[in-house]
Amino acid sequence: MNKSIAYKLNPLSISACTLLLTASLSIAISATVQAETYRIVDEQGRVTYTDKPPTNDSSDTNTSSVEKLPDNTENQNITPSLDTLAEDHPEWLKEVHEQRAAEAKAAREAKQLELSEQRKEWREQLKAARAAVKSAEIALEVGKEPGEGDFVGNAGGGARPSSDYLMRLETLEKDLADAKRDLRRIKKSKPG
Q1: On the CB side of 179, how many CA atoms lie within 13 Å of its CA?
Q2: Strand partners, 153
Q3: pLDDT at 36 (0 to 100)
Q4: Spatial distance between the Cα atoms of 52 and 60, rounded to a whole number of angstroms
Q5: Would you list the domain boundaries of the chain?
Q6: Cβ 47 vs Cβ 39: under 8 Å
Q7: Which residues are 66's β-sheet partners?
Q8: Does the pTM of the predicted model rise above 0.85?
Q9: What confidence score (pLDDT) does residue 24 get?
Q10: Residue 42 CA from chain centroid, whole number
Q11: What DSSP line would sit under 58-126, residue for residue?
């Protein structure tokens, strides 16, 4: 039975039905797309887009501006260029640009100040390490001079260094090596 109905319809009526169905669908879709859109900016500058107009109850008292956006469906999904934004909203764009520039400048200055403090601290450590090396070198030179009891006599004649003298020299040489190692470490840690 269905085959007989399909054969009785002519191709022109099928095209007319297709056209009518397409037109109906496009009208239905455009009706749903044509909803109103509102742009709400609160006191902190946050922007919210909504399809519902804001109410005047106490929950919306922190909004600073409400703007009904034009019904421009052909340009709805186009992001404006910076030039367009500057033309449309030059005040807030300039404020945001100035705020970002001020934040970047403050961050650079803070980093420079921190680096300056690190370099100052490094120079003080370097000065102290050099003084420690100089002090250890002097202590070693003074410690090398034999004093009374630093040498003991041998049974067959002659003298040899005492164990206290040798331990003192070993300690002074170790102190000098430690001071030089510390100086090298500080030199390598110079801040950028």
Answers
A1: 20
A2: 159
A3: 72
A4: 13
A5: 34-71, 118-188
A6: yes
A7: 40
A8: no
A9: 63
A10: 27
A11: GGGTTEEEEEEEP--GGGTTPPPPHHHHHHH-HHHHHHHHHHHHHHHHHHHHHHHHHHHHHHHHHHHHH
